[in-house]
Amino acid sequence: MAAEGSTGNFAQPSIPKFDGDYEHWSMLMENLLRSKEYWSLVETGIREPANLEVLTVAQRKALDDSRLKDLKAKNYLFQAIDKTILKTILLKDTKRKYQGNVRVKRAHLQALRRDFEVLESVFSAPVHLRRPF
């Protein structure tokens, strides 16, 4: 007789919850995602073609299948991570992406100023003296 929550002879695997021990949790999640055949997507991601219009029917089907597998893998990951931890991860990622180090900002600003000054000098010179880009 099959136990409740099982499919055939196999019990549904429980999704490992992240409890702060990343090494242990990542090992369990990798094993789960490998058993579901989603691990290759975690390692390589989806390769989006530059032009969707040139895909054959088989290629489009394969791309749609990959996208669905990617969503399923993300679903397992989202279920494994508590909402407060997920918000913390997203907040840190956003800060890292948009704030950055003060020195890096200054260097980037200096490079932009230098580019502007070069362009300004090129366009302020008479036409016959202008350098090509």
Brief account:
With 133 residues, the chain is mostly helical. Helix content is 62%, strand content 3%.
Question: What can you tell me about this protein's structure?
Answer:
The chain is mainly alpha-helical and 133 residues long. It contains 5 helices and 2 strands; from the N terminus they run ββααααα. It has a two-stranded antiparallel ribbon. A hairpin with a 2-residue loop joins strand 1 and strand 2. The longest helix is centred in the middle third of the chain and has 24 residues. The N terminus is likely disordered.
Percent of residues in helices comes to 55-70%
Structural class: mainly alpha
Q: Which regions have little confidence, pLDDT < 50, spanning 5+ residues?
A: 1-6
SSE string:
EEHHHHH
| Rg over CA atoms | 25 Å
- General form: flat
Tell me the fraction of residues in β-strands, as a range: under 5%
* C-alpha termini separation: 77 Å
Query: What characterizes the major β-sheet?
Result: 2 strands, antiparallel
- Beta strands, count: 2
Average predicted local confidence, pLDDT: 78
Q: Biggest sheet, strands in spatial order?
A: 1-2
Q: Number of helical segments?
A: 5
Itemize the secondary structure elements and their pairings.
Blueprint: E1 6-7, E2 10-11, H1 22-35, H2 39-44, H3 57-80, H4 83-98, H5 102-124
Antiparallel strand pairs: 1-2
